[in-house]
Write a structure and sequence with these properties.
This protein is of the alpha/beta class. The protein has one domain (4-269): 3-Layer(aba) Sandwich (Rossmann fold). Helix content is 36%, strand content 13%. The protein is built from 11 helices and 8 strands. The chain has helices at 4-9, 26-29, 34-42, 57-67, 84-97, 128-133, 137-147, 149-157, 189-196, 229-236, 257-269, and strands at residues 73-77, 105-109, 161-164, 177-181, 203-209, 218-219, 222-223, 243-247. The chain has a 6-stranded parallel sheet. Strands 6-7 form a two-stranded antiparallel ribbon. The longest helix has 14 residues, at 84-97. It is globular.
Length: 274
């Protein structure tokens, strides 16, 4: 469970025992299954604050590929600002909140790697929950935009949304859930193999990242993205049934036009061929 202070600071909880507060004693809340409760409240169409309206053709295509029942694993490469994380989290929420899909929870994982540095999780102060919080700020921002702070808070507290840790997945069976591994360019080949081989019954997994922003694998300050597990698996699973690939390009960037021009200068210097 994430700390009360963390939730209050970000507006997910008032901290004073209101009806929306996850710290109300369980006997005051009732014992009904919370996932079932969400679904009964919204019927067959999820009550989502902001509906998804694709801003590019590739966003629409990515959404369709996730929606395809035959795709159990989707690999998505996209540069900064293409909306890949928003689209994947939106679709996962849609299916978890909708009746009859069989998906009960979402597990979202971000590697604990600093910009330009190696994994330093063990050196950060605090317990494990506090250590991983800073690596998931973008996740909380997206959840807030899509379903609102109150609902995001509820779903996190009852583990319908779980912020996972890559280091502790060995031996776990991932079933009846969506799994989103973000920033996968910072994952080793062994780590990405471990998470993929956790797939069990009714599990849909999305592995996404931007190979041009690989922080973990650098030699003399130059990114060696070919050592990344994401790069390895992109080609290794090219012709595997049940695996789908999706690649965004610079034209799909929906941030400020300046970002596109900045990205172009880096592409010219370090072109990545997929």
């Amino acid at each position: 469970m994430l700390s009360r202070e963390f939730l209050v600071e970000r507006g997910y909880c008032c901290g004073h025992g209101c009806k929306m507060c996850p710290y109300i004693p369980k006997h005051q809340k009732g014992n009904e299954n919370m996932t079932r409760k969400y679904k009964s409240q919204i019927g067959t169409i999820p009550k989502i604050v902001n509906d998804f309206q694709p801003k590019t053709d590739n966003q629409k295509l990515f959404f369709q590929k996730i929606s395809d029942f035959n795709n159990q694993l989707i690999l998505c490469h996209g540069i900064a600002g293409t909306g890949k994380t928003y689209v994947s989290i939106y679709k996962a929420l849609q299916d978890v909140l909708r009746r009859g899909t069989g998906y009960d929870k979402i597990i979202i994982i971000n590697p604990t790697v600093d910009v330009g540095n190696e994994d330093k999780l063990g050196y950060l102060p605090g317990a494990l929950q506090q250590k991983i919080q800073q690596y998931n700020e973008s996740t909380f921002t997206i959840l807030n935009k899509i379903i609102g702070k109150s609902r995001a808070n509820k779903m996190i507290q009852d583990d319908t949304i779980e912020i996972g840790v890559l280091n502790f997945l060995r031996g776990v069976n991932l079933e009846n859930c969506y799994v989103i591994l973000d920033e996968a360019q910072n994952v080793s080949p062994m780590q990405i193999k471990t998470i993929m081989t956790r797939i069990s019954q009714n599990c849909k997994m999305i592995i996404q990242g931007d190979m041009s922003q690989c922080d973990k694998y650098k030699t003399n300050g130059v990114t060696n993205y070919e050592k990344s597990g994401f790069y390895d698996v992109w080609f290794r699973l090219k012709n595997v049934q049940g695996v789908e690939h999706m690649a965004f390009n610079r034209e799909d960037c929906i941030r400020h036009p300046l970002v596109k021009r900045i990205l172009k200068t880096y592409e010219d210097e370090h072109e990545i061929t997929l």
